[in-house]
Design goal:
Length: about 350
């Protein structure tokens, strides 16, 4: 098959699989699926992954155009509303990706979430704190509290844009501190008098955390314009992107990285690969000689994911699941599973390759 025919076939497989997942989970939210029988572990409210299920339903509706599919996506997006005021930086993951593909009602929810996130911005910490909604101390900074929150904050006007830039740069200050020699440190806690200290979990080398950071930097670079670039500091963002691309081995490392870079014989994480591919496709929208290389690498990653890790019709797994994702290697939780956000970013990347989705809007 020549050209992007493989991507068309794979996109159809993934989005047809959304229908099977919907039938299985009913009114609950999928989290991760068993690698043997494809059964989903679910949550009642969606947790930090609920927006990806709404996003997958939105992508299916975009693909089919069926009124019933649009209605299903809208209904699931509306179920995310309680998270708008939740004390968590992951509301960016939940409410940006859960609303970006929706209509007017989704837009109203996104505006509400953006205002709430802006109100939570702490000028002393220089970011929106990790929060308490998912447990643990509130005054933390984690790499997975940046993606989604950058465009969500920035959507609320100049004040939100400044907060988005501040939130991202503070995370870069922390996570990339000392990264000239080491992998980025993805988790930090503010301890008051002694300031910020690195947390042991997740440890440096968490490849999904590196992909999350690259995705957030790519989103910021797409928003940084010469006439209004002061809060974004685009030169610094470009330097951060180059450092992340290098230290995370996004352009020359394995097409699917291990979940923990320092444990190369451990579980892989296909979701990290899919997130990284979408980040590369976003970077490919930027002018410059690197754009072609970013797109080529992203296409190679996505093609590898669909060839080697995507469950196909007629196999032993339900078709459309991106296998070999790792929820949490340190605790041994769901280390070779399909992950709802892995399916989402694979579908999003394939849709972008096929020019069915504008990554400057999602």
């Amino acid at each position: 098959m020549t050209g992007l025919g493989w991507a068309e076939v794979a996109w159809d497989v993934v989005l047809r699989g959304v229908g099977e997942t919907a039938r299985q989970v009913g009114d609950r939210f999928p989290l991760y699926a068993d690698p043997v029988d494809g059964r989903w572990t679910t949550t009642g409210r969606g947790s930090w992954t609920g927006g990806f299920w709404a996003g997958l339903l939105g992508l299916r509706a975009l693909r089919t155009g069926e009124p019933a599919d649009h209605a299903a996506a809208a209904a699931r997006t509306a179920r995310l509303a309680p998270w708008a005021e939740a004390d968590t930086a992951t509301r960016g993951l939940i409410l940006w990706y859960g609303t970006a593909l929706g209509g007017a009602e989704a837009g109203l929810l996104r505006e509400r979430a953006a205002r709430s996130a802006l109100a939570a911005y702490d000028p002393v910490l220089g970011l929106v704190p990790w929060g308490t909604a998912l447990g643990g101390p509130r005054a933390r900074a984690r790499a997975d509290g940046v993606p989604g929150l950058v465009p969500l904050l920035a959507s609320s006007g100049p004040e939100g844009e400044a907060a988005a830039a501040g939130h991202l740069h503070r995370h870069l200050d922390l996570c990339l501190d000392g990264a000239a020699a080491e992998r980025p440190s993805p988790a930090w806690e503010f301890t008051g008098g002694s300031g910020w200290r690195a947390c042991p979990d997740p440890e440096p080398g968490w490849t999904r955390g590196e992909a999350w950071l690259l995705l957030a930097v790519a989103d910021a670079l797409l928003r940084a314009r010469p006439a209004r670039d002061t809060p974004w500091r685009p030169e610094r963002l470009r330097e951060a992107a180059e450092l992340l691309l290098d230290k995370g081995e996004f352009l020359y490392g394995p097409l699917v990285p291990p979940a923990r870079a320092h444990h190369p014989d451990g579980p892989l994480d296909t979701s990290a690969a899919a997130i990284g591919a979408v980040a590369l496709l976003k970077l490919a929208h930027l002018p410059g000689p690197e754009a072609a290389a970013h797109r080529t690498r992203a296409e190679s990653v996505l093609r590898n994911l669909t060839r080697r890790h995507l469950a196909r019709p007629g196999g032993t797994h339900p078709a459309g699941l991106l296998r070999d994702g790792c929820y949490d290697a340190a605790s041994g939780t769901a280390v070779r599973h399909a992950l709802v956000w892995g399916d989402f970013f694979l579908a999003l990347g394939l849709g972008a390759l096929l020019d069915r989705v504008d990554l400057r809007q999602v």
